[in-house]
């Protein structure tokens, strides 16, 4: 995994195993968050962007398979490494079919765990570079034509998605109404139309309302700019 994307979520309810995993992964150069039950896993998984999520099958409240399925339904694309004492073929097949990307049976070698994490991380980075665009906590999936903030899906109509994609591809740049009309609607500028303002208003409400910070900014007299703080 690259130096810029080495954050892992460990979902493990056994204190001894969790402590060992967090310590070993931290020493190996990873930033590690720990969830000790299913509810914590859902909260963490939807709030941050992880390179890999390791998850135990047997959790005290919500089982790992259900957690994984719910995070997938919320648009979380991070690869899952299932770590479980359930090692029968049927157990492994069920875990992988439920959305897991790899399966490691307890007890395991930490060296093997690291190798699997590195492989999943490389795969994740390759896919992300090819299909995902990100600005701050906003992610847009060019294949699924879907957008999310902090893992929460943003319902967008096709033209709204095109508008947001254009703003994201021009992150930090001021784009005029004429540019938006030409590149999103394939039309020449008509000074009498307010279609741009209407659509930007719709997209802004969907993207920015109830969020920690706005992404879409109006540049008075010129157009719009999409940027994250900092």
UniProtKB/TrEMBL annotation:
DNA-binding feature ranges: 130-228
Keywords, comma-separated and alphabetical: DNA-binding, Phosphoprotein
Pfam family name, one: Trans_reg_C
Domain OmpR/PhoB-type: 130-228
Matching SMART domains: REC (SM00448), Trans_reg_C (SM00862)
Coiled-coil region: none
Protein name according to UniProt: Response regulator transcription factor
Organism: Bradyrhizobium diversitatis
């Amino acid at each position: 995994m690259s130096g810029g994307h080495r954050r892992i979520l460990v979902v493990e309810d056994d204190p001894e195993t969790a402590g060992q995993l967090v310590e070993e992964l931290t020493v190996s150069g990873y930033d590690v968050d720990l969830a000790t039950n299913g509810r914590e896993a859902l909260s963490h998984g939807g709030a941050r962007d992880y390179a890999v999520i390791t998850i135990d099958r047997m959790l005290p409240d919500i089982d790992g398979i259900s957690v994984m399925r719910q995070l997938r339904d919320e648009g979380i694309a991070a690869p899952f490494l299932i770590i479980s004492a359930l090692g029968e073929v049927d157990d492994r097949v069920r875990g992988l079919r439920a959305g897991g990307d790899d399966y490691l049976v307890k007890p395991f070698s930490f060296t093997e765990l690291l190798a699997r994490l590195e492989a999943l991380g490389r795969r994740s980075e390759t896919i992300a570079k090819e299909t995902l665009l990100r600005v701050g906590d906003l992610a847009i999936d060019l294949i699924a034509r879907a957008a999310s903030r902090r893992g929460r899906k943003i319902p967008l109509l096709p033209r709204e998605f095109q508008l947001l994609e254009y703003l994201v591809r021009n992150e930090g740049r001021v784009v005029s109404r004429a540019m938006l009309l030409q590149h999103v609607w394939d039309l020449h500028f008509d000074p009498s139309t307010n279609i741009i303002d209407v659509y930007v208003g719709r997209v802004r409400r969907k993207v920015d309302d109830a969020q920690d910070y706005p992404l879409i900014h109006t540049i008075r007299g010129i157009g719009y700019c999409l940027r994250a703080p900092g």
